Amino acid sequence: MFGYTKQAFYKRSTKKSQSKDYLDQVKQEVMKYRSLLPKLGGRKLHYLMQDFLSSNQIKMGRDQLFKYLRESNLLVSRKQKYHKTTNSKHWMRKYPNCVKGLHIHRPEQVWVADITYLTCNTKHHYLHLITDAYSKRIVGYKLSNNMQAETTVEALEMALKGRIYDEKLIHHSDRGLQYCSQLYTKILNANDIKISMTEQADPYENAIAERVNGILKDEFLLDIHFGSKEIMETQVKESIALYNQTRPHFSIGLLTPNQAHLQQKVKLKKWKKKTHLQAI
């Protein structure tokens, strides 16, 4: 009466049932990764799910996954926030930009440093970060309620303690007074580390550090208002561990920072200035 044979009807019903079953499996896998990396993007999610899709004989391309995420309201949105933490109007010595146009080809060739703010009980706290420009690995950090040079030094000392290569190193940062202070530069000079700083008020001059700040806030939810310092400290520690160990980066061939830090043949992807900084 409807133009379908009995066989076609049951075949279609079976196909719908199978489709629902595998989509339920896909959703469970998506939620597993999202429980660890709440704001992980669709392309990285599809990459991490390859073994799961293959072992369950599920054929789902990247576009299909994006469509499913969109229909299930599982796509993540990006926030745009800005809070100035740099005070470059001071009398202390400022250094030239030594990394502009530099070919970065190994870990511990360039470290980039920056400070970002977090909020706890309506009060600002500050996360002092040092990241390896090659591997994107966070090598040193310190969470504090101040932006004093003594605090920034603690992040530097953590990075120095964890070094695994004995080669020339450049430390790149903005012109904030913490990085220009005698206390900080003295330690860099004592460890034979060349000092480099941004020359303009252009975030692209320290793009990697700025991007890492954004990842920690957008994808690891460090931009929320924490109820206590203890909760914030735990979240920061766990987020940095997951960032280094679990999150793949497009700019290092979808390796994790820890994996890339142990290699010296990773082909870094370059991005033009006008391109949105989603490389890592």
TrEMBL record:
Single GO term (MF): nucleic acid binding
Domain Integrase catalytic per the UniProt entry, residue ranges: 103-265
Pfam families linked to this entry: rve, rve_2
GO biological process terms on file: DNA integration
Superkingdom classification of source: Bacteria
Cross-referenced InterPro entries: Integrase_cat-core, RNaseH-like_sf, RNaseH_sf, Transpos_IS3, Transposase_IS3/IS150/IS904
PANTHER family with a match to the protein in the record: INTEGRASE PROTEIN (PTHR46889:SF5), TRANSPOSASE INSF FOR INSERTION SEQUENCE IS3B-RELATED (PTHR46889)
Name under which the protein is recorded: Transposase
Organism whose genome encodes this protein: Flammeovirga pacifica
